[in-house]
């Protein structure tokens, strides 16, 4: 019954000693559990049985999202045997967003997965830097350089432009559904999929060439690309929150991205809206797997000496 005790303790420390009951007795409250597969029997059988046996009318688990195991280079993680990477070490090596994205995009939802530096490098470089970051940076720097930092006014949107906006709406909806269903791996990859749509659109339309002979058409393309960028700021926030917040500020939008409703993703970024100077959101990892192993060992020695 530790979950109940923890809720009681939390609200007691906040000086709201009665509020814990809202979470465990009000019928519109839902409890969602994220666990490893070894904890399935407790969360689906033993814990609900304990709640029922109390006779107090506790809310039962609404959903239990269980994963398979994440191994480290083919072995079970063990701190005593120094197999794995721990959070203090991880954050000294790369940003929290890199780790959050990688661990979510490779989440072992249907089978055991395996961490390797090679896989980590590939995901950060290909997905975050070359796809997500590249699309956003090329769009925003084009607005900075060609439209004085203002989202251009679209003259007319052709069938291709409308198709991109339709696809954007569908993919934003799909990511939302996957999050609700706890299919977080698919949701994270869906965010990158939106970036791929944007990149392909720019590659096909080549506004940097078109602007020399048809500025109004280049403006329409850039306007559409800006809508994709704005949507990405919202849908990426659960997975790479720091980059999403930085992007939100670059878009010069009010408040924090983490205060926004999901529906904000599809609300248009208006023409003439002024954005800030764009900076790259991610950097390519140039080191090899062997070099990262060496960095990790040096870091561990330093952390041990400090301790």
Task: Tell me what the structure shows.
- The model has no long low-confidence stretch (mean pLDDT 95).
- The two termini are 35 Å apart.
- The protein has two domains: 2-67, no CATH class; 97-109 and 120-266, Orthogonal Bundle (Isoleucyl-tRNA Synthetase, Domain 1).
- The strands form two sheets. It has a two-stranded parallel ribbon with strand order 1-2. The protein has a two-stranded parallel ribbon with strand order 3-4.
- It is 58% helix and 5% strand.
- It is built from twelve helices and four strands, in the order ααβαββααβααααααα.
- Strand 1, helix 3 (40-54) and strand 2 (63-67) form a beta-alpha-beta unit.
- With 307 residues, it is mainly alpha-helical.
- The chain is globular and about 75 Å long.
- Helix 7 runs parallel beside helix 10 (215-235) and helix 8 packs antiparallel against helix 10.
For the largest beta-sheet, the strand count, sense and barrel status come to: 2 strands, parallel
CATH topology of the largest domain: Isoleucyl-tRNA Synthetase, Domain 1
Assembly state here?
single chain
Low-pLDDT parts are none
Number of helices: 12
Quickly name the level 1 CATH class of the largest domain. Mainly Alpha
CATH architecture level-2 label of the largest domain:
Orthogonal Bundle
The total number of structural domains is 2
Q: Average pLDDT across residues?
A: 95
Helix/strand structural class: mainly alpha
CA(first)-CA(last) distance:
35 Å
Biggest sheet, strands in spatial order? 1-2
SSE order: HHEHEEHHEHHHHHHH
Percent helix: 55-70%
């Amino acid at each position: 019954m530790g979950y109940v005790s923890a809720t009681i303790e939390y609200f007691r420390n906040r000086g709201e000693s009665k509020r814990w009951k809202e979470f465990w007795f009000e019928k519109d409250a839902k409890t969602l559990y994220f666990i490893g597969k070894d904890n399935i029997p407790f969360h689906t059988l033993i814990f609900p049985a304990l709640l029922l046996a109390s006779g107090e009318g506790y809310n039962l688990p609404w959903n239990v999202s269980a994963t398979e195991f994440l191994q480290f280079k083919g072995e079970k993680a063990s701190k005593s045997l120094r197999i794995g990477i721990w959070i203090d070490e991880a954050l000294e090596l790369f940003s929290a967003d890199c780790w959050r994205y990688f661990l979510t995009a490779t989440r072992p939802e249907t089978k055991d997965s395996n961490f390797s530096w090679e896989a980590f490098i590939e995901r950060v470089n290909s997905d975050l830097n070359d796809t997500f970051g590249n699309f956003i940076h090329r769009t925003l720097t084009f607005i900075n350089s060609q439209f004085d930092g203002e989202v251009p006014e679209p003259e007319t949107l052709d069938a291709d432009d409308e198709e991109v906006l339709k696809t954007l709406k569908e993919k934003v909806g799909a990511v939302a559904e996957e999050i609700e269903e706890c299919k977080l791996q698919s949701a994270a990859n869906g965010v990158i999929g939106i970036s791929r749509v944007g990149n392909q659109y720019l590659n096909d339309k080549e506004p940097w060439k078109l602007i020399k002979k048809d500025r109004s058409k280049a403006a329409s393309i850039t306007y559409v690309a800006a809508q994709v960028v704005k949507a990405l700021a919202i849908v990426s926030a659960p997975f790479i929150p720091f980059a999403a917040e930085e992007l939100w500020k670059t878009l010069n939008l009010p408040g924090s991205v983490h205060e926004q409703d999901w529906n904000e993703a599809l609300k248009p970024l208006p023409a003439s809206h002024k954005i800030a100077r764009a900076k790259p959101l991610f950097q390519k990892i140039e080191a090899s797997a062997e070099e990262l192993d060496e960095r990790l060992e040096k870091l561990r020695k330093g952390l041990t000496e400090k301790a």
